Amino acid sequence: MRRTHRILGPVLALPLVLWMVTGLLFHVKHRDAEAYEPIAVPPGGSVDWTTAGLAPAEVLSRGLADAPLHLAPHPSGRLAYFGASRGNPIAIDAASALPIAPATPQQARLWAAAAIASSAHALRYGELRDAREAKHRSSRTGLENPALAFDTSHGKTVTVDLVTGEISQTGALNDFIDATYRIHYLQWTPWKPANVALVLIAIPLVLGLALTGLRMSFGVSSSKP
């Protein structure tokens, strides 16, 4: 019994330490607000929803876009219907019924800079660097929209949706937090079956360590006068 306990102890020492440390990080949530903060182009003022004179039924009947439609402010200041037309993302001015052209690289950079400037953690971003083509999964169109991704001098990536103006951010801090979750839940490999196998191996080992410890503890107690 004692020998089994001594074998299991060193085998499980590192996984248990990692489990406790990562669990502590989950409770502390150091810089989580920064890592997962939503950023967006700040509105120029209050939104005047009465300017949306185009009804959704008219958008559909005129074949301007397919259902469903999403009415929301565009970074240009206009209200727009966002959706898809023949499988492609589209933004339609809710006042004039005219399509809104995708943002140019210069516009996208301005939007990214404005969103960063309005962030409570603006200093953590640094300066915008060159952009590269990307895709953004839009909640407004339901599609993978064309986008530009700007790396920053402080290791973050800001992605600007060229159709809707939605903006997302991620970086090394997100990668670190995601890694702690994978470590905590024994997701140590890229393969799900292997991770499940790790869990199935870890459970009996931990139970064995606990049970042998309890057996030894009660054994010592029962031997005392």
Describe this structure in words.
The protein is of the alpha+beta class. The protein has two domains: 2-30 and 186-223; 32-39 and 53-176, no CATH class. It has helices at 2-28, 32-35, 56-61, 105-117, 172-184, 192-223; strands at residues 66-73, 79-85, 88-93, 128-137, 144-152, 156-161, 167-171. It is elongated. The two termini are 22 Å apart.
Instruction: Compute the number of helices.
Output: 6
The number of strands is: 7
The overall average pLDDT, rounded, is 91
Tell me roughly what share of residues is in helical segments. 40-55%
- Overall geometric form: elongated
Q: Evaluate the radius of gyration.
A: 27 Å
Structural class per helix/strand content?
A: alpha+beta
How much of the polypeptide forms β-strand, as a percent range?
15-25%
| Structural domain count | 2
Order of helices and strands: HHHEEEHEEEEHH
The low-confidence runs, each spanning 5 or more residues with pLDDT under 50, are none
Main beta-sheet annotation: 4 strands, antiparallel
